[in-house]
Write a structure and sequence with these properties.
single chain, mainly beta, seven-stranded antiparallel β-sheet, 1 helix, flat
Length: 444
């Protein structure tokens, strides 16, 4: 009896050793202050780092003591200190194609006494390059949570990436994560893996606003059963019969960016996936177009957050702001103390102008005026001009404006003669009490 029990225990141990394998891990033990501080890149980042990358474009790092980086404390860990905005850590793309029942694990912790909801670590994964999905256990830890382990299990596919979204606005606290691990069961029955590819439409295709649905088609191999498809942007999905060639006759599109995903399995139930991102264009307005915020202008716009005028906080149409009055007409778009009770801890606001159809109009100039007064080192104004009718924007393309003009100042941009559309966004980031205005947006 004892021999049988010993054999059973030994067999169980061997099975665990054979099949529960670590696929990828990062414990940050090889880095010393690798990341970004208010003084710039640190510890050889990014050149010394190959397994992950970070993005602090939404943070305010005021000096070298504000940072998001891998430190050698406690044998190595990732820390965020006084970053005033969400930083993003993204792992490299990790090959999990030879594994089933893939599990993810990340340890999170914090120091300090702050219970603020702006102090957090939030964990997501991206399967096969798809959309971010929150971990199923302890995906979000906020405030004074102490320590937790975020986990996700039961995954299969070709690749996985882990994404950590982190904030900590306090100089006396730390948001921390460590021991990022991907594990899974190696092997299977030896049956060939399934394969699936979307061949139509091409990635990054832009459709006119009038196109409310499209067909999607592709190829596959070693598939059984059905192919599942989704477009989360339009809240639609369904199934079609698997085959060497397949098609979905009608996939609804939402205005803006749409990621259409397809998934299939082989005979062992191991999944394969593919996705494509397309854009349904915004509704365009006709040329000529202008906007001076007088109520009858033709260039339409959308504000994010929506307009407000509460106490001393303004983001919207006004006829005066401190000593600023309109550059043209009676009104202008004002901005002060955006980081208020209305927007929480976020000092940023965007004003998006609709695409203007300028096909065949020849040489044109886009212009606007702005006024800035007293913007300090953490405040800023910017704009972006894009020559298409899509709905995505890129902060890397922002052009930053002067912080203290003391007068209305003209900005002009020449529109390429071969452009069919042009659109504009104006951006302000202000924690108050500073003052700014935009006015006289014209396309001539």
């Amino acid at each position: 009896m004892n021999k049988i029990l010993t054999i059973c225990l030994l067999t169980t141990a061997l099975c665990g050793a054979l099949f529960a394998e670590t696929i990828w891990t990062e414990d940050f033990s090889t880095y010393t202050d690798a990341g970004i501080t208010g003084a710039g890149n640190s510890g050889g980042y990014p050149g010394s780092v190959t397994k992950w990358s970070i993005d602090v474009s939404n943070c305010t790092l005021s000096d070298a003591e504000d940072y998001f980086m891998a430190v050698d404390t406690s044998g190595g860990r990732m820390e965020a200190k006084d970053i005033d905005g969400e930083a993003v850590w993204t792992s490299e793309s990790i090959d999990i194609s030879d594994y089933t029942d893939v599990s993810l694990s990340v340890d999170t912790s914090e120091t300090g006494s702050s219970t603020s909801g702006s102090k957090y670590v939030s964990l997501f994964y991206k399967l096969n390059g798809g959309a971010e999905v929150a971990f199923s256990v302890n995906s979000l830890s906020t405030g004074n949570w102490g320590a937790a382990t975020a986990t996700q299990s039961g995954l299969s596919g070709s690749t996985v990436q882990i994404v950590a979204r982190v904030n900590n606005p306090n100089s006396g606290d730390l948001s921390i994560f460590d021991n990022v691990t991907v594990s899974g069961t190696l092997g299977g029955t030896g049956n060939p893996p399934a394969g699936i590819e979307i061949t139509n439409p091409a990635d990054n295709t832009i459709y006119p606003n009038s196109t409310s649905s499209i067909s999607v088609s592709g190829t596959g191999s070693n598939m059984v059963g059905m192919i599942s498809w989704t477009n989360e942007a339009a809240s639609v999905g369904g199934t079609v019969t698997a085959g060497d060639t397949w098609s979905v006759s009608s996939v609804d599109l939402a205005v803006g960016e749409n990621t259409i995903s397809v998934s299939c399995t082989n005979v062992d139930g191991v999944a394969a996936n593919d996705s494509v991102t397309v854009t349904r264009a915004l509704v365009s307005v006709a040329y000529p177009a202008s906007q001076s915020f007088e109520g009858s202008d033709t260039w339409t716009y959308t504000a994010d957050p929506g307009a407000f005028n509460v106490s001393n906080s303004v983001w919207g149409v006004t006829n005066s702001l401190n000593f600023i009055t309109a550059a043209h007409g009676s009104n202008f778009w004002g901005a002060t103390d955006i980081q208020s009770d209305t927007t929480g801890d976020d000092p940023r606001a965007d004003l998006f102008f609709s695409p203007v159809d300028i096909s065949g109009e020849g040489e044109l100039t886009l212009s606007f005026q702005y006024y800035s007064d007293g913007y300090d080192s953490t405040d800023w104004l910017a704009y972006e001009v894009v020559f298409d009718n899509a709905a995505t924007w890129n902060d890397d393309n922002l052009v930053y404006l002067e912080k203290d003009t003391g007068a209305w100042t003209l900005v002009t941009t020449n529109v390429p003669v071969d452009a069919d559309y042009v659109r504009l966004r104006l951006v302000a980031s202000d924690n108050g009490p500073d003052y700014a205005g935009f006015d006289a947006v014209n396309l001539t």
